Amino acid sequence: xxxxxxxxWVNSLGEVVYDKENKSSKMIxxxxxxxxxxxxxxxxxxHSLVLNQLNSLVLVLDENTDFTFASSSVVKxxxxxxxxxxxxxxxxxxxxxxxx
Length: 100
Known about the structure:
The protein has a single domain (10-99), classed as Beta-Lactamase (2-Layer Sandwich), CATH 3.30.450.
């Protein structure tokens, strides 16, 4: 928590440095502010929870037309599990669907 009351998230990594007598002499490390990353991840989780509650089929494709998200309704509406859909290309999935 900052002095102004703002809460931030940090990632830290440190190491104790020992002298010749095996006594701790200093600590070196890094502290990185990851507040934006945590905020984005929480927002994505909230969106995912909302999308999975819908009775609509929601599919998200990347620039290669591979599925990166499929709402839980994909099972009921297509017969495919989410695992079968993710990573598949639009063409692959639609071609398989027609041959079923």
